[in-house]
Amino acid sequence: MSTATVTAPPAEKTAEQPVEQPAETNGVRPRIRGIDLARGLALLGMFAVHGGPSSDVGGVTGALMFVASGHSSILFATLAGLSLALLSGGATPPGASDPRRTRLRIAVRGLLIMAIGVTLTAMGTPVAVILAYYGVFFLLAIPFLRLTARTLLVIAGCWALAGPVVALLVQSWWWGSSAADMVARVDPITLLSGEGIDQLLVTGVYPAVTWMPFILVGLALGRLDIARLSRTTMLAIGIGMAFVAYGFSALLTPLGPRPVAGPPDASGSLDWSILLGADAHTGSTFEIVGGIGVALAILALCLAVAERLPRLTRPIVAAGSMSLTIYVLHVLTINVAGLDAMPGQPLWVLLAFIAGSIAFALIWFRFARRGPLESFVHSTTAALVTRKSSLTTDPTTDRRTHP
After folding, report:
1. pTM, two decimal places
2. How far, in Å, are 279, 287, 300 from residue 245 at the CA level?
3. Rounded mean pLDDT of 66-73?
């Protein structure tokens, strides 16, 4: 899923081979272990949100549950943007060589991931599945692939400021409108899963209108060459962003119950004070900036730790390198087991998710190079893109009338 220039020390070559496989871009450069470690931690955080204890239990467990809420999905989205950068050239944006093929590969990949997400949601799972949103993010990111890191960061900053306001304005008009009813009747995604294009873009749990900044920042990190960035600088910037965003939000938000996103009240108006909050899924500028800060700090730590402790981090790295498969398996498990997919489960449920997913990943990589769903997405994308390219370049397929 991603490429890199960082490899495990020679002494670890045999032990770490399952998660040091060539990336899906061109099979030349190995994966960056720190990215897979961060992706694995994001998965564990989602396990905690969907099948762990409540943060009300207090202590270390409660604190970890609180941090996992919201931040896990933001880290996941930021890493998605980083993966897009690595899939499209890393520090060198796709140039004149074959930009159309790059865009097509990412579009196909996004549609496949979106289809998997829609399928999971259609099963009636209680989990707010992120994959359909994830696929939409891939599609929306295509126009930004050729931009420089500086331009991407500027756009991300502007989007973080304007996106929450736009979201609130659109939501206040959309909910209960005739347009919403019409879309619900004709939108095939809504008809299939109950979660339609309007939710994926504006009104859902992870709407593109407020989540694209995470993708753009991740894309910028890849354009800066993540393997060479200073871990200390990333950590300091991340902590600073989180401190400023959450600090200002705490000062501006009155004590008492925090507002959350939702439909208008009986008067038809929305509570604009939501823009001052920073709690999970408020979709405010403070949540976006703070979430990016936490993601940067975690990524910096993961890059540093994975390089220095390859054996210790191997289990989580293995899980992170097949995150799509494990995410889908955890949603299916929750569905089959009839769990509520909300914090409040016994601690052993969370531990079982973690142990089971890590064991599955370690065993799988003894026999295969990629996770099963990763292999499916990779091979299907390659086949479709190759077929499309051959149809485009083969003169026998040109049916136009020639003079």
Report:
1. 0.85
2. 11, 7, 19
3. 87
